[in-house]
Design goal:
CATH architecture: 3-Layer(aba) Sandwich
Number of strands: 5
CATH superfamily: Response regulator
CATH topology: Rossmann fold
Structural class: alpha/beta
Order of helices and strands: EHEHEHEHEH
Number of domains: 1
CATH class: Alpha Beta
Strand content: 15-25%
Radius of gyration: 14 Å
Length: 143
């Protein structure tokens, strides 16, 4: 069973991702965090096998949250975002430097033509990335 923590500040997107992930018998949504700060606490307590991470959140965005998670409790992270351009090279490199393993572009929640392909891609990515062993990211600010 793959335990997943969903991190997104939108309740609609939280439910959307929860619905998709819960359709697979090998995946359990262990928790849902509405902020980066909440995610840091939940990772420590829940010890998920994988985290789905939003990009734009108030106070602490997905980049910073990913970086801090990888410095404290290394966990495979998949960025799931509805922002056009999130999968371009510079953004993908920025996420990779923060410790994320993959980026998945999320369609608008109920666009039926794109739903099936997104559903399949998200499930496949979660399963594949949960198998990757990650290591603690060095904190560049410490001397």
């Amino acid at each position: 069973m793959i335990k997943v923590l969903i991190v997104d500040d939108s309740r609609v997107i939280q439910e959307f991702l929860n619905h998709i992930l819960s359709t697979d018998p090998d995946i359990e949504v262990a928790g849902i965090a509405g902020s980066g700060e909440e995610a840091l606490e939940m990772v420590r307590v829940l010890k998920p096998d994988l985290i789905t991470m939003d990009v734009n959140m108030p106070l602490m965005d997905g980049y910073e949250t990913s970086r801090q998670i990888m410095e404290t409790f290394p966990t495979p992270i998949v960025i799931v975002s509805g922002i056009e351009g999130v999968t371009n090279v510079s953004n993908t490199q920025k996420f990779s430097e923060a410790g994320a393993l993959a980026v998945v572009l999320r369609p608008a929640p109920f666009e039926l033509p794109q739903y099936a392909s997104f559903h399949k891609e998200l499930i496949q990515t979660v399963k594949l990335m949960s198998e990757i062993k990650v290591v603690k990211l060095y904190n560049r600010n410490r001397k």
